[in-house]
Amino acid sequence: MEDALGSIEAPGLDLLGPMGPDIARLFTRPVSVLHRASELYTARVCLLLLLDLGWEARLRAGLALEEACSGLPDQARKPLAWMLPFLAAEGLLEQRGPDYLLRGEPDLDLAGLRAEVAREAPGHDVNFDLLDGVRARIRPFFTEGKPGEGLLFDLSLFPLWLSYFRNENLVYLPNNLLALLALRESLPEQARVLELGAGAGSFAQLVANQGAREGWLSKIAEYRFTDVAPTFLRRAQRELKAAAPGLPLAFQALDLNRPLAAQNIEPAGLDAIVGINVIHVAQNLQGTLRDLRSHLKPGGRLVMGECVKPALGQPLYLEFFFTFIRSFTDVELDEEWRPVHGFLTPEAWEKALRHAGFREVAFLPPPRPLMDRFPSFNASGITAWA
Ligand SMILES: C[S@@+](CC[C@H](N)C(=O)[O-])C[C@H]1O[C@@H](n2cnc3c(N)ncnc32)[C@H](O)[C@@H]1O
């Protein structure tokens, strides 16, 4: 294992802050193994995809981003601008000035990585099936200019996404669990909670189950489950009452890119707005954050579960899927308040949230120095007070 995945080390409780005992279960060896294997698997799939496109000779000669993009639809630029540096960071391409070179015969074994994970973190085949699925389906994005959304969220991959967004998935659980612990802190009685982009409902299920076990579920008077996608909403309406018992559910279609007031949400009426892995798709982040703030009661909180990056320019393997999705890449940028699309550093989130008028911003666990020492740990529960 050491040989294939490098050394696997977990942080001590001293790096995890006051809630260390609650979150230590996110730092076990199986989690670290799964992260590292997923990172390697993603890098290998990413290079295999370029080879599938017939680029081996070009890569062996050295290929700069500009050259790579020529003759391709414009939409290929952002994914390639992510893929080439990612492959260099993973040691599968060599960077020389602007050129990326394929040298020798890099290890592109996928089955071996799956076998390691099956031994140490069983039950995660779907994570790798999804990566294989992206490789198998995404080619027309480059060759015919087809939108990534249609290729990656079609009927054949949708069940895999549903299986991925589950609390049993050790690399998906952290955003849910950290946001849950943040929400649980100072939740008032009779709380009105709204979840944005609630999707497959994994966060709502965690709230129901852990809240009942720990005795705080009864503090929630209303849990408004919302999503922009009718498929997710219909599925939740069918299945969530049984899967999240005791949660006082209300359902509503809601798009975070449209003013909440125009979608029948009263101003200053909510104790908490929760968004797990969704707020980074806001087209105008400042506009959305300000709108969300205006719908919180004084003292209410925005609670986010987000992937965070150690540095804005550092590719994170989890971005691979999303570089093909327009809602992730095509957002309004602003040097100060929204410097890049997609995932941000904790510092960039803090700046954006404060500029939008939030008073205090807190991260769970404290992100530095943890993420500098353990770059593969990239989840954060972020709380911002209105
Ligand atoms: C990464 S998933 C998170 C899913 C969910 N938290 C779960 O655990 O199942 C992102 C969700 O955000 C939703 N979404 C995307 N764009 C949105 C928008 N503009 N407004 C509201 N929800 C959106 C998607 O439909 C999807 O369900």
Describe what this molecule looks like in 3D.
- This protein has 386 residues and is an alpha/beta fold.
- The chain has 2 domains: 2-159, no CATH class; 173-385, Vaccinia Virus protein VP39 (Rossmann fold), CATH 3.40.50.150.
- The protein has helices at 2-5, 20-23, 29-52, 56-61, 65-69, 77-89, 111-120, 125-137, 139-143, 148-152, 158-164, 173-184, 202-214, 230-243, 285-294, 319-322, 326-329, 346-355, 370-373, and strands at 63-64, 94-96, 99-101, 191-196, 220-227, 249-253, 270-276, 296-307, 361-364, 379-385.
- The strands form 2 sheets. Strands 6-5-4-7-8-10-9 form a 7-stranded mixed sheet, with helices on both faces. The chain has a 3-stranded antiparallel sheet with strand order 1-3-2.
- α15 links the parallel β7 and β8 (296-307).
- The longest helix is centred in the N-terminal third of the chain and has 24 residues, at 29-52.
- The protein is globular, with a radius of gyration of 21 Å.
- The model has no long low-confidence stretch (mean pLDDT 95).
- The structure holds S-adenosylmethionine.
- S-adenosylmethionine is lined by residues 165, 196-203, 227-229, 232, 254-257, 276-278, 281, 327.
- S-adenosylmethionine binds next to α13.
Based on the model shown, name its key terms.
alpha/beta, globular, binds S-adenosylmethionine, 2 domains, about 45% helix, Rossmann fold, three-stranded antiparallel sheet, 19 helices, seven-stranded mixed sheet, about 375 residues
